[in-house]
Amino acid sequence: MKCFQVIVTPNAQENIEHAYAWLQEEDPHYAQRWLQEIRDKILELATLPKSHAIAPESTAFETDVRQLLVGRGTPWRVFFTIDDQKVYILHVRHGRQDYWRPE
C-alpha cells in the first residue's frame, strides 16, 4: 500500500489554531478532544487519500480538491490536494460555514 507524505500548509495550520482557540473558550474539554481527532484524521490521509470525495468547491480551483469530514453532526471539513506522493492540507472549516473559495 502506498504511503503518502502529509503536509499541513501554514493556512490550514492557522485555521486549526483559530478553531481550537474558539472551541477552547466554549468548551475546553471538547476543544482538546477535537484537536486530537482532527490531527489523527489528517495523519490517516497518509493511506488511501483518494478514498475521500472531491469537494463541491473543487470547481473553483485548477486542481481536484478533496475533503475529509471530521466529527459527528455537522462535521469539520478538511480540504486537501494530492500531488504525486504528497497530500497537502489546504484549509479547515466548519461545515456550517460558507463554501470555501480561492483567495
Summarize the helices and strands and which ones pair or pack.
Elements: E1 5-8, H1 10-26, H2 28-44, E2 66-70, E3 76-83, E4 86-94
InterPro entries: RelE/ParE_toxin, RelE/ParE_toxin_dom_sf, TA_system_RelE-like_toxin
Family: Belongs to the RelE toxin family.
Keywords: Toxin-antitoxin system
Largest sheet: 4 strands, mixed
CATH fold description: YaeB-like fold
What CATH architecture do you see? 2-Layer Sandwich
Low-confidence runs: none
The 3D shape can be described as globular
Helix content: 25-40%
Mean pLDDT over the residues: 91
SSE sequence, one letter per element: EHHEEE
Number of helices: 2
The secondary structure category is alpha+beta
Query: How large is the radius of gyration?
Result: 13 Å
InterPro entries: RelE/ParE_toxin, RelE/ParE_toxin_dom_sf, TA_system_RelE-like_toxin
Organism: Magnetococcus massalia (strain MO-1)
Keywords: Toxin-antitoxin system
Family: Belongs to the RelE toxin family.
TL;DR of this structure?
The chain is an alpha+beta fold. The protein has helices at 10-26, 28-44, and strands spanning 5-8, 66-70, 76-83, 86-94.
Account of the protein in words:
This protein is of the alpha+beta class and about 100 residues long. It has a single domain, classed as YaeB-like fold (2-Layer Sandwich). About 35% of the residues lie in helices and about 25% in strands. It is built from 2 helices and 4 strands; from the N terminus they run E-H-H-E-E-E. It has helices at about 10-25, 30-45; strands spanning about 5-10, 65-70, 75-85, 85-95. A 4-stranded mixed sheet has the order 1-4-3-2. A hairpin with a 5-residue loop joins strand 2 (about 65-70) and strand 3 (about 75-85). Helix 1 runs antiparallel to helix 2. The chain starts with a strand and ends in a 9-residue tail after the last strand. The model has no long low-confidence stretch (mean pLDDT about 90).
